[in-house]
Amino acid sequence: MEELEILEAPLLDAARRGDTAKVRRLLAEGAGIDQIDKYGKSALMLVSIYNHLETASVLLEDGADVNQANSWGFAPMSAACIGGNLDMVQLLSSYGAARTFTNRDRTKCTAEELATRTGHTALTAWLVTSTRKWTTPLHHLTIIPAARAHALLRKGASILAATAPGDPTPLSLARELQAKGEAAEGSAAALVLSWWRPRLLALAMGTHTRLGAESPFRHLVGHHAAIEMIAEMGS
Question: For residue 91, which of 31, 122, 51 has the smallest C-alpha distance?
Fold first, then answer.
């Protein structure tokens, strides 16, 4: 029966094994990205269970439903929390995964509760902090690739987004990573750090026009702290 199921659902089999190349090929050939097995598990659910991070990234980028749950209310985020897979939880979170699940008996369960019950203290700590303070995909700088960060920025994602005054922004998180030597060239954090100067200058000068290489505002580079304060007040 299992062999028959695999033959009927090659995408699910490839996802279960973490065969990223085959998943890419099957999606390009038109495989249904949110198809499920007999237990209601989607390809994204399977990669979340087995912690295939690269394959999960491909599925999410191609539009997989991050919150697709089976009849028991078990979702990809549920699987990642139970497994204690912090990177997977962060990846799913960066695509808007819900943190609260409705079980088959209509009771509610949170991601934090699942991580706590299974003894994953580091994951629990991250979930507690990020549930309240990590409000946008761009906050997830340690997990999203630079290409995705660039796409988010081009679409208008704010490097100053925060839940409340004093809470982390993508820019402040990027600076923290830089201070720890974790904002290598080509990373999402490095991109945010390189992005903020022209954007904040534009905000400070009262315009959102893209600044060219010969912008007359370049002479203000010695006043970043004041410009940033002005920009934050107006954002």
Answer: 51
Token digits of residue 190: 């490095």
pTM of the predicted model, to two decimals? 0.74
Structure tokens at 7: 């033959």
**Helix, coil or strand: residue 186:** coil
**Per-residue pLDDT tens for 77-125?**
999 999 999 999 999 999 989 998 888 778 888 999 999 999 999 999 9
**Residue at 219: amino acid letter:** H
Reference 138, options 96, 166, 110; nearest CA is 96
Largest CA distance in the chain: 71
Nearest to residue 197, comparing CAs of 178, 184, 215, 177? Answer: 215
End-to-end CA distance of the chain: 58
CA 193, CA 216: separation in Å to the nearest integer?
A: 21
Domain ranges of the chain: 2-133, 138-234
Question: With respect to CATH, is domain 2-133 assigned 1.25.40.20?
Answer: yes
Distance of alpha carbon 174 from alpha carbon 169, whole angstroms: 8
